[in-house]
Amino acid sequence: MYLQTDSQTMDDLRLFSKADTQGIYDMYNHSHTRGGQTIMEAMFRKPLNNREAIIQRINTITAFVNMKATFPFNSATLDQAEKYISFDDHPDGGTKVSLSEKEIQNGIMAVIDLFHALRKYLESAAIAQVKELEEERQAAIGLLKDPVFAPVFNEKPNAKISFAAVTAFDVLIRSKEKRKVLQLLHFIYHIDVYVSVAQVTAKHHLVFPVVHPKGTSILKVDGVYHPLLKNAVANSLYMDPSCNLVFLTGANMAGKSTFLRSFSTAVYIAHMGFPVAAAAMEFSVMDGVYTTINLPDNLGIGASHFYAEVLRVKKIGQELSEGKSLFVLFDELFRGTNVKDALEGTLAVCNAFTTRKDSKFIISSHIIEAADDLRKKESTAYYFLPTIMNGAVPAYTYTLQEGVTNDKHGMIIINNEGIMDILKQGNKGGKRLNKQL
Questions:
Q1: Tens of pLDDT, residues 377-410
Q2: Which residue windows are coiled coil (predicted)?
């Protein structure tokens, strides 16, 4: 039911914010409720690998986009109801911590108001048109019609209730029928998520992917870009059943990592049933998505960067050996070792990958010599991100092209910064370099 992935991939794609860096989750999440935020996060952590489930979520969100939906409940009322429902009296160091009488009364009034608003919403034409949620809608209607909740609807919204009624309602809502109340809140939380994603879809002009059955080996993304980058350059990459490995080259700063992150983010988000930052997308459902863009050394087990890479390849190899279809991405495979070993390792791994026709692989590398040997494999495609030299100054188009490039301009950048001249000046120059850095 769920796509296989791991924390390395989530970190690579920057799904969740860290420090001052915004995550992809933050862009999609404009939920009004804490419950909605929790469900949204769960969707990000557990994408789907079932075509029917993905399509159902796509169709559900599309319906909310088409109706230009807004959140139909009062956020303050929901917040108060959430706090009241989720509070459990509990002993704390011998002292019993409880809600005050006023807090209980306000919580009950919030639940009563919410029940009335929910009944009105469930009976509205808008939600009735979302056929993908019809089963959940009818279940919620059934819960509201349960005779145990008759006292709730006998009260009018915003009405003051007596002390005796408060006690009775508190027992009803937080004790006897709490499970049913939580079920109704759960329905509201999902509506919160769908409305949030629908509004983001319209605001950012995102598109829903076309979902192909597992095993059909299609991965086509047209005009993909990174959703968090301003003035992002869009690129297209098509991988059909005849192509299962892309070998990507390009100089440092040419945009390889950004493209790889943009493309793999689209693949990941598509498996959530969410809209993606692209002009169009088609994909076959995979069993798992694994990326390796910023792989850290594992100092805890004394592993060097190269050994961490080896362990990463081993993990993916084990998944593939079990017959799983995977989307796999390595940015500069085996960068942690010498050029000779990197060449031999890259060739060995890439050649093995080309035999797995039901999976898709993208490998970026500075080892362009590997391309000569890989050309023997018909299932391999070659792309590069070019560098244009304006005299001694490199410029980048960030636009994907077919072929292999041997662009290298590391020394040009070093010389442009005057580093060698500074170092030649001895200690004085070194101090100046430190000051500049």
A1: 889 999 999 988 887 788 889 999 999 987 666 6
A2: none
What residue ranges define each of the domains in the chain, with the CATH number in brackets? Answer: 31-204 (1.10.1420), 210-406 (3.40.50.300), 407-437 (no CATH)
Element (H, E) at 361: strand 360-364
For tokens 């005779």, the residue is: 147
pLDDT in tens, 351-379: 999 999 999 999 999 888 888 888 888 89
> 302 pLDDT exceeds 80?
no
Residue 410: the pLDDT is: 60
**Per-residue pLDDT, 206:** 98
Single out the residue of 48, 18, 8, 17 nearest to residue 330, CA to CA: 8
Q: What is the three-class DSSP state of 177?
A: coil
Task: Identify the residue whose tokens are 């101090």.
Answer: 431
Both tokens of 164, joined, read 């005796």
Q: Which one is predicted more confidently, 416 or 72?
A: 72
- Model confidence at 91, in pLDDT bands (50, 70, 90)? very low
Which string of DSSP letters, residue by residue, matches 395-432?
Answer: EE----EES------HHHHHHHTTHHHHHHTTHHHHHH
DSSP SS3 for 380: strand
Q: Are 328 and 293 in contact (CB under 8 A)?
A: no
Structure tokens belonging to residue 94:
């011998």
Residue 13: per-residue pLDDT:
96
Closest CA to 259 of 66, 398, 60: 398
Distant-in-sequence contacts of 194-197, Cβ < 8 A, 24+ apart: 194/60, 194/61, 194/64, 194/69, 195/64, 195/69, 195/70, 195/71, 196/28, 196/29, 196/30, 196/31, 196/32, 196/36, 196/40, 196/71, 197/28, 197/61, 197/64, 197/274, 197/275
- Look at the chain and count its residues: 437
Rounded CA-CA distance 434/82 in Å is 54
CA atoms of 275 and 60, how far apart (whole Å):
12
DSSP structure class, residue 285: -
Query: Measured on CA atoms in the order 309, 387, 238, 345, is the torsion positive or negative?
Result: negative
174: which DSSP letter?
I
Compute the average pLDDT of residues 10-30. Answer: 94
